[in-house]
Amino acid sequence: MSCKIWRVVRVRPFGAHSHNPFRIAILEFMLLIQKSLKSRFRAIWTSILLTTPSNYADRLESVTKLVVNDSLSNLELINEIDLAVVTIVIGAYWHQDLQEVRSRILALQSHSNADIQELVLAYAIALACRDDLHPRSFTSQICHDFNNRKLLSRDPADQDNCLRQLQLAQKFVDQGASMITSHILNSGLSQAIASSLYYFLNTPHCWHIVNQRTQRHPLSNHPQVTLQSGAIASAYLGGIGNTEKQNQELLTRGVIFGDQLWAKWAGVFNGDLMLVDDRLTPHR
Fold this sequence. Notes:
Blueprint: H1 21-31, H2 37-51, H3 57-68, H4 80-93, H5 98-108, H6 116-129, H7 138-147, H8 156-175, H9 179-182, H10 192-202, H11 207-214, H12 222-237, H13 248-266
Helix pairs in contact: 2-12, 2-13, 3-4, 4-6, 4-12, 5-6, 6-12, 7-8, 8-10, 10-11, 10-12, 11-12
């Protein structure tokens, strides 16, 4: 069975954000025609490869294997990029059960800096993989859910602060606030997950616009924000759009690894996950 995928192309300058609810509803309807889980896995791992350092492929492979094999106790996180990647992988691979996602992120807290921000990221990825991420209501959904759970962070104050940052991000999106205004010191967004959602929620219909805007992100958490917002957008859209100008080798690896991971998740692949394989020919 086949279906036509409608695509809406609308060019507008950065900062000139239209938030007409009717227009956004039409975009969501056209863009959220059911995407396969395999396409979402392909898009997520491709986005990770395109938004991490060029030498990160081997590390991505090892981190993904640890998540798939449920061996997080053996995980040694090197930096914030590692933490974001393992969170994205948990959200994607265990998306079918939010309790499983939650329990793994909470377990990750015992031997890393993981906290409430990582849980929000994992939820966004998981909901997108379930075709249940709705940009206009995601923030209120998370705040409502997490406000009823008081043990999601080491410090309840951190949890409250994170939820306030998410609400602030939504406020800036609703107001059409510029990137600079949204990140003013002491009164703007400071947490990576809040900034990531700000960029995604502004233009959820286009991975490339999200990625381009994060390239100018004014805070020092720029690499983490670029990675996270791209992963959320790719999971939501089930693709990253026009790839003509992208690194073809990375695109090939992302597709192959996404296919393998989907097969592993579906229980039809018992081999070892392999992201880098010289025998592979470029995907057409």
